[in-house]
Amino acid sequence: MKHLLSVTDLDAAAATGLLDTAARLKQALLGREVRKLPTLRGRTVITMFYEDSTRTRVSFEIAGKWMSADTVNVSAKGSSVSKGESLRDTALTLSAMGADCVIVRHPASGSAHRIASWADRDQETTGTHTSVVNAGDGTHEHPTQALLDAATIRERLGGIAGRRIGIVGDVLHSRVARSNVFLLATLGAEVVVVAPPTLLPVGVAEWPCRVSSVLDAELPALDAVMMLRVQAERMHGSFFPSAREYAIGYGLSADRAALLPEHAIVMHPGPMVRGMEIAPSVADAPSAAILGQVRNGVHVRMAVLYHLLAGATS
Amino acid sequence: MTDDRRGGPADAGTEQGSPARELLSAADVTRTIARIAHQIIEKVADPHGGGLGHTVLIGIPTRGTTLAARLGAAIAEFSGTTLPVGSVDATLYRDDLRRRPTRPLGATDVPDGGIDDALVVLVDDVLMSGRTVRAALDALAEHGRPRAVQLAVLVDRGHRELPIRADYVGKNVPTARDEQILVRFTEIDGVDGVSLARTIGTTGGAE
Amino acid sequence: MTLLIRNARPYGEDAVDLLVEDGVITAIGTDLEAPEDAEVLAADDQVLLPGFVDLHTHLREPGGEESETIASGSAAAALGGYTAVFAMPNTDPVADSDVVCEHVRRRGAEVGLVDVYAVGAVTVGLEGVKMAELGTMARSRAQVRMFSDDGRCVHDPVIMRRALEYASALDVVIAQHAEDHRLTTGAQAHEGVVASRLGLAGWPATAEETIVARDCALAREAGAALHVCHVSSARTIDVLRAAKAQGVRVSAEVTPHHLLLTDARLTGYDPVNKVNPPLRTGVDTEAMRAALAEGVIDVVATDHAPHAAQYKDTEWSAAKPGMLGLQTALSVVVHTMVEPGLLDWRGVAKVMSERPAEIGNLPDHGRPIAEGEPANLALVDPEGVWTVRGDKLASRAANTPYEGMRLPATVTATILRGRVTALNGELT
Q1: What is the pLDDT of residues B100-149, one digit of tens each?
Q2: How many domains does chain B have?
Q3: Residue A233 CB neighbour total at 10 angstroms
Q4: Among A193, C196, C215, C318, which is disulfide-ready with A203 (CB 3.0 to 4.6 Å)?
């Protein structure tokens, strides 16, 4: 595996392999005072974030550091990027400096793919090998988020195949939704996406999931429900008339959460808008796996770096 | 157990050039494990108190873990004392990761009670270059500070590349580099046994 | 200047010799005698067609010369078998005045490889607010016959109505880039399964169809000539068919890429596939081919849109939409229409030369291959095969979606008023 750009690059075996590695890494670090593994010593990992993000960036940075890689963060603001340097030149500059891995978050869908293709083309001429990890490209994908969500589901529910997972919210604009639908389907889960029709993409009928616009009808049969963040700005595009109406129809209130089966877990990729898509009491309940998701995020990202960088690169 | 001690291609399952020659039958394996268990009991026993003290068996995955469990059971049977048994995966500490495609990780399970000030007996099925044991020692050091570390192996096949020696050896088997030692345990392979085979297509190995 | 073409097959029919003197076909027959000093072109039984006329080309000059110039675009046109092109006004400055239009026409004449006709803007600055001086442009030395805000849609129905009414008295045609911009805000790709999967904001087919329906109704009321640029959706064809049945004076064009390419190509996010209107589905390309064969779509127009590397070698959303088209048009038409038997060579002549010349009101192009007619011709080798290489094309830019593809049919020679402008893949 040279790049991680999309969950569809992973078949069930590869995805399960990554989750197994993450679980083993978690085990290996358990109970230790010194949370450091020497495995990626001498590797250089650079995060290149064109969108503000504390949690994902810090998670990747910690993941790199716990594997003893040299991690450097580049934020688009204040770098040569804001002076108009093209995405391609920025990526190749980092590669030329010796980055073994570039972790990219960018508002344009497909940007990680483009960077990977420039890096591959560059390798043909210069021999430098740079892996690219997609940390979120526009509304396309966020593969490591889906992997950590899958790890959390596996941990809390004992497995993924055959489990019923609901993904609720702004599916149209959500890269987390796309990555999750496709990865969970690959791993054998039954997925249903729930949103008002305006927030479902044209073409969703062809996705490997069911589609519904009535949340209450779906909740009693779910093993896990994943709430997506809904941006209030979507009201201005008339995707829904008001925050109140959205919360009434699609927010996970305490009453709604009571419709879930006893064993079901509640997830959220964060950051949450408490009171909009999720009630505060629900976010803090024992059934909420949200902080677990964050913890798993570090191990999953360590696993990704391990699979990309530890072995032979040819 | 990692496959370079078997010889031949790692991870791919073993390819044999000639039929395997049996070194230990299933019964031999049981007897050998029992003998090692007795040796450990003898060496570890507190001369004044008679107990086995804080001694922990730590297997190196994959077959080292199985062997450690068997040793623990044998020691419990013979001495009446159940020692803590666990595993420590050495993969992340290997010095040769970049030579092969990504290796899957083994399980790490340090028993409750930890390893601080304990006598740790590292257990593996085959000892060859000593590099895996070196990596396992590094991994172990991250989990605590044992009082001492000893090494128990089912088969020592020679070709050491580091100053490492086993305290307990089931069987010494001189081998050529291009030969493979195949260790099978019922829990993993369905049957017990140790055999010797030659790898296909190796260069420079004299018959 | 005398030219003798030996053994050519006009419209793929029987082989003849043609004598061209001073830009006119003076004799057609067998075994014609070559006059002294005549240039002889051995056509070897290849197909002779009227020179192609492109109603929709972007030559980028003035203002965009890093991507193309009138000279390089003319070269591409001549090599593609074209003898006339209509250059769209979205230049910098915009061709919304007689001054810019006359410059484009004059520069094209200076280069002399193809007749360049300036398309004038419908509204000042393409802003869609105030009508440009259509009359002045029409009466100028540029003799503008077609007006368009291409790149943008004339969105305000009042402005479109007025433009159509005004145009009807000038006997010119308004060419609409049909896109309801409010439905395509931020759009990057055809709104469908592929875009939904790739996280690319969708450009719904309804944004094209609704404007076409509206404009046909407005054209009907005004009694004016409407031309619809780059039809891309199957639904639009239904609207056009109905409008034509009602007698509306509407004509429509389809690009070669919309005959062949679909949004399945977008999966690598290579911006060479980014174009406006976007590549749609197989259902749409099938419908385009059928409509072109039927005549509901009248012509093939390239929408040749060169973009220098810095505008394409970026992330998808930052890339400018557009593809090269002049040198590959004939091959794509042969591949999608002639090979499957949807069009014969007479049909190719109609959609690539005769009908465009008619719509563009050109007296000298798209004429029958007959004695007394102007010699604007293209000689085509139907058995030829070539591999497209962007860096070998004549355009300054290299953004061809057909990079590396082997395509059928090659242009052996292009003849502009009796003068050979391109021969065997080289300019002459």
Answers
A1: 999 999 999 999 999 999 999 999 999 999 999 999 999 999 999 999 99
A2: 1
A3: 9
A4: C196
Helices (H), chain A: 12-29, 55-66, 87-96, 111-126, 143-157, 175-186, 215-218, 243-250, 254-257, 280-284, 290-309
State whether residue A45 is helix, strand or coil.
strand
Model pLDDT, residue C169:
95
Question: Is the minimum CB–CB distance between C269 and chain A shorter than 8 Å?
Answer: yes
Round to whole Å and give the CA distance between A113 and A116.
5
- Beta-ladder partners of A105: A49
* A155-176 residue pLDDT tens: 999 999 999 999 999 999 999 9
ipTM score here?
A: 0.89
In a domain, B40, yes or no: yes
Contact A307 B138 (CB under 8 A): no
Please, are residues B57 and B71 in contact by the beta-carbon 8 Å criterion? yes
Q: What is the pLDDT of residues A186-225, one digit of tens each?
A: 999 999 999 999 999 999 999 999 999 999 999 999 999 9
Distance from the first to the final alpha carbon of chain C: 15
Mark yes or no for CB contact A203/C196 under 8 Å. yes
The Cα C232–Cα C229 span in angstroms is: 9
Beta-strand (E) ranges in C135-206? Answer: 146-148, 173-176, 189-190, 202-203
CA A62 – CA A299 distance, rounded (Å)? 9
Q: Which helix (H) or strand (E) holds B169?
A: strand B168-172
The tens digit of pLDDT for each residue in C316-375 reads 999 999 999 999 999 999 999 999 999 999 999 999 999 999 999 999 999 999 999 999
Q: Give the whole-angstrom CA distance, residue A65 versus residue B58.
A: 27
Q: How far does C195 lie from chain A, in Å, by closest CA? A: 8
CB-based contact A28 B114, cutoff 8 Å: no
B89 touches chain A (CB under 8 A): yes
The range of the structural domain enclosing residue B68 comes to 26-174
Rounded Cα–Cα distance for residues C203 and B190 (Å): 60
C37 a catalytic residue: no
Q: Distances in Å between the alpha carbon of B34 and those of B37, C317, C364?
A: 5, 69, 104
Q: Indicate which CATH number applies to the domain containing B120.
A: 3.40.50.2020
Question: Chain-centre distance of CA B175, in angstroms?
Answer: 17
Residue A299 CA to residue A297 CA, distance in Å, equals 6
Q: Is residue B63 part of a domain?
A: yes
Cβ-nearest to A108 among C195, C270, C318: C318
Secondary structure of residue B58 in the 3-state scheme: strand
- Kindly report the average pLDDT of chain C as a whole number: 97
Domains, in order of start, for chain A: 7-141+295-309 (3.40.50.1370), 143-293 (3.40.50.1370)
CA C203: distance to chain centroid?
23
Domains identified in chain C and CATH numbers: 50-359 (3.20.20.140)
Distance from C235 to chain A by nearest Cα, in Å? 17
First vs last C-alpha separation in chain B: 26
